[in-house]
Amino acid sequence: MVMPDLRAAFGARLKLGEPLARYTSARVGGPADFVAVAESAADLADLVRTARGLGLEPVILGGGSNVLVSDAGVRGLVILNRARAVEFRAGGDRPTLWAESGANLGAVARQCAARGLGGLEWAATVPGTVGGAVFGNAGAHGGDLAGNFVLAAILQHDGQVAQWGPAELAFAYRTSRLKQAKAQGRPLIVLGAELALTVGQAAAVQAQVEQYVAHRKRTQPPGASTGSMFKNPPGDFAGRLIEAAGLKGTRLGQAEISALHANFFVNLGEAHAADVLALIHQAHAAVLDRFGVDLELEVELIGDWTGAC
Description:
The chain starts with a helix and ends in a 7-residue tail after the last strand. The chain folds into three domains: 2-81, 2-Layer Sandwich (Uridine Diphospho-n-acetylenolpyruvylglucosamine Reductase, domain 2); 86-216, Uridine Diphospho-n-acetylenolpyruvylglucosamine Reductase, domain 3; 222-302, Alpha-Beta Complex (Uridine Diphospho-n-acetylenolpyruvylglucosamine Reductase, domain 1). It has a five-stranded antiparallel sheet with strand order 6-7-13-11-12. Strands 1-2-5-3 form a four-stranded mixed sheet. It has helices at 2-10, 41-53, 105-114, 130-136, 166-169, 177-183, 202-219, 238-244, 273-291, and strands spanning 15-19, 31-38, 59-61, 67-69, 74-81, 86-89, 96-100, 117-118, 139-140, 143-144, 149-155, 161-164, 189-196, 198-199, 224-228, 251-252, 255-257, 264-267, 300-302. By secondary structure, the chain is an alpha+beta fold. 30% of the residues lie in helices and 26% in strands. It contains nine helices and 19 strands.
């Protein structure tokens, strides 16, 4: 049986029936059967290897943005990635940093700015983790993770850790080989990544960060949301299309297509994941019907969606 084996392997660190809403930026989602916390990259690798040895493929949850967890929760094991160590590496005019995959990307970018290191200004308002950014090639303000990427430590299916460069990751708009592998049922785990920086003037770098922060406050809703719901289609913006379809401000229960930015779906307090999903379907259908544009989700659906609309 899995439960006794998990308890024996994980001991007191294993939590049962843990609600996942508290670990997601949208503040929605039911319980996971089992939850464990990884405190370092090495710990994360060990937990994944142990789970796979018991026949379980764990769900890795970092900052909880860009995911929508079902109301029914997750069957099996969720590992909360709290591997957050960051190391700055001097390199003359080509400095880099190494960050474990659970480190918050926006916080890392702000640490860079405080040191007068540029290159990650675009990421200062990105809510997700370094691992999530590598997985989905996160981007904002004309920059993206691929533009800073040097290499990543990847836990492979055989339990070995490999160093992958840009060619292996095969980055494209909001995707990578990692995302494709997961879709094929063969997930690979990011343990950490090295990112390239530039030498700058602290005041100038900080001023750029503050400009991006101010822009976000003007254009994106505060509060609980998944982040950008749909990818922008070529030559257009998902938010503009959803707004033009007349859905800006649309509510279902406590879920709302933001009245400030239509590509953000907001939890007004006690939203259910099923209501958010229904709004996703409504927005997708309306944009397809009116404009012939087949919007693609940027957010990942996680958990048991059996019976959901």
